[in-house]
Design a protein that fits this description.
It is built from 15 helices and 11 strands. It has 382 residues and is α/β, with parallel strands linked by helices. Strands 1-2-9-6-5-3-4 form a 7-stranded mixed sheet, with helices on both faces. Strands 7-8 form a two-stranded antiparallel sheet.
Length: 382
Amino acid sequence: MKKITVHLGERFYPIMIGRGLLAKAGNSLKALGIGQKVMIVSNRRVAREGKLLPSLVRSLKRSGFTCHIHLLSFGDERDKSEKELFRLWNALLEARLDRTSTLVALGGGVVGDLCGFAASTYARGISLVHVPTTLLAQVDSAIGGKTAIDLPKGKNMVGTFYQPKLILSDLDSLATLDVQTFQNSFAEVVKYGVIRDPKLFKLLERRGTVFLKRAKKHALGSSDFRFLEEMIYRSSKIKALVVERDERETKGLRTILNYGHTFAHVLETASRYRMPHGEAVGLGMILAAKFACKLGRTTTDFVDRQLALIRALCPASSLRKVAQKYYFTWKKLKPLFQHDKKVVAGDIRFVLPIRLGKVQVVFAQKNDWQIIRSIFQEMGVD
């Protein structure tokens, strides 16, 4: 097992990464000194597929916790809505949870975002524990305290900063995931390699495709779990360090975690959130690298190397096919850039790669939009 501590003064918390953590969750939560009542928030897919929810409930009950369960309706981005948020708030009230109670988010990034928002606002803030069950959530969304719901014209536009008490990243929860779910998660890991960790990027180049072949056959072995542990640890460590130095994204450093996301959020919003996040981030990184190259900030060698890895590990990376599927046009996409959270006084910020392991935050200039449009045209969006 590996452990990372996120140092935020009195609000510090551990990230635990390893196997068998779900069965020990009761002891881990008991050590936090929290109240007896716990609400586990998950979705119907997690509840239906496998033993994660029963295992968590058994562990918590053995440690003396009273457990309530709330399942979100859809199991996808549609759960990050005001309707599902109000439904969860009412469930907390009906279960008579109070300020000593705890919300436990069992699921992927959508569950974590919504659950975190609810925990930060119910009774003006109750304890939060993340038990992420996807690779994407374990390397990224569960860490750092961002919570959110979506608006029809903007992803993650309503939310809070609210840190958890604990994150339990149990590798065994990943064992039954289908290969598409892993592919949807790898984009965020590639992101960490690009922004801060060339060794992680090289690890993905060396081991990623072999891992996916075994995941496709549901034949993960001990070497695959070691690969997962190392990949999750390196990614989590980067995010923890960035969050420690710029928790609320006021100093500019945390913005680098949005590499590829300015483009990605536009694509997701235009698809009405039907487009998988990992596919959008993969395409977003491709677009960002091409933009940086046309500005002279990076090399064609970097663009090609990143493209090769994204194509090997991530969902289909053809913007042309995506545009046909979701009816994207430049006229439809361009206004959505203004709805991005990184817009400052009307100016749009992009995180652009300089070389492997280094990125830079830049503001788009007026003339840049013709370049961006040309890139979309080259990739099949008129």
